[in-house]
Predict the 3D structure of the following.
Amino acid sequence: MQFTFIDLFCGIGGFHQAMADLGGECVYASDIDADCRKTYENNYGIKPDGDITKVDVTNIPPHDVLCGGFPCQSFSKAGKRLGFADETKGTLFFDICRILKYHKPKYALLENVRNLASHDGGNTWRVIHDTLDGLGYNVIDEPVIFSPHYIGVPQHRERVFIMCVRKDIGKLPPFYFNIGKIPPCSIDDILLDDNEIPDLSSYKLREDQIEWIDNWNEFIQNIKCEKLPGFPIWSDCLCPIEENPYFSEMETLPKWQLNFILKNNELWEQNKDFISKWLIKARKNRNFFGAKAKLEWQAGNMPNPNIWEHIMQIRPSGLRVKPGTYFPALVAITQTSIVGKRKRFLTPRECARLQSFPDSFQYDEKKAQAYKQFGNSINVGLVSFFARYMFGDKNLQHKYSLEVQFPQIIKEQTLSLFPEWNTKKALQ
């Protein structure tokens, strides 16, 4: 199949990779980040434009599909959640709209953070839906929240996908999937063998890092409680309540903080003999301070817990431990996951695999920049999934064992973008 597409807010090319794999030809790309534009050009031979707000729509070539993962900071939980009130990033959606209004492509596929679906009590989604509808597009009624692990990629990264079909082309099929039929995934699917990593030592945990993680492992293995604590463990608060560093201001603390302090105190009371000795040992490690003196155990309850069997992240809120089933979402800030059983951080190549880029993809030679770019990227596999769904590909139902429905209500011209497809057969 052959079609043309444009790639707005293109980053390093997640949309491009997926659309090109489906047979698409990119006729235009843009991104404000110069480093991303360089990576994009190195991989796809196209030099993207810069700031889309300064681009004349008449200079953008005609196209069949508009793709855009518009900036998410205005809607993300990690930001201020200003939404459209953010004049720098929140209004970039309307730059998409002015391109749709002028060029009227057959399809549009957009992506954003999960929080977009609920931002401002749902008003933000309603503005987006109604605006696209007013421009002549059938839009999925509800924002679709989807994660790569739903299609077998071991990364939990929920994002909102918005599918649009021009009204003269047809209607979108109703979308739902059976959560019970999610294909299995394993972190081993994306991991390199250690002997495949030339600079392996630069990813390995240092001995002092292993030591302070061992301290937390000893803690989680020896505390006595009904179930492993799901609340943050703050080592400074593992003490008698009157010795707590927040004791003098407890009456004015937010309810959530006071709740955590009291739970830490209760844990201390139940395990004071062990914790007293453990703290003396732990504090001898020069790394045991700040976030590293906090633990977020999110691996569930189990009889014989072992941190080294799980996945870790060093976060401002503490050492977070997740089940060893799939990786937490890649993020642009430096929170690279640690593979417990390997005692090392993920490499950029493994991050590329988590975003479903092929191993031929050339990432930025600066590691920090590569991590940032993959953290900001869209998952290639999900783009392909939703593009095929939007185009009317029934084979998705079989490949992913998802209950994807294509009812008779869809007009035959839904598939008109690809005349070589057997439309009548696809709708049977």
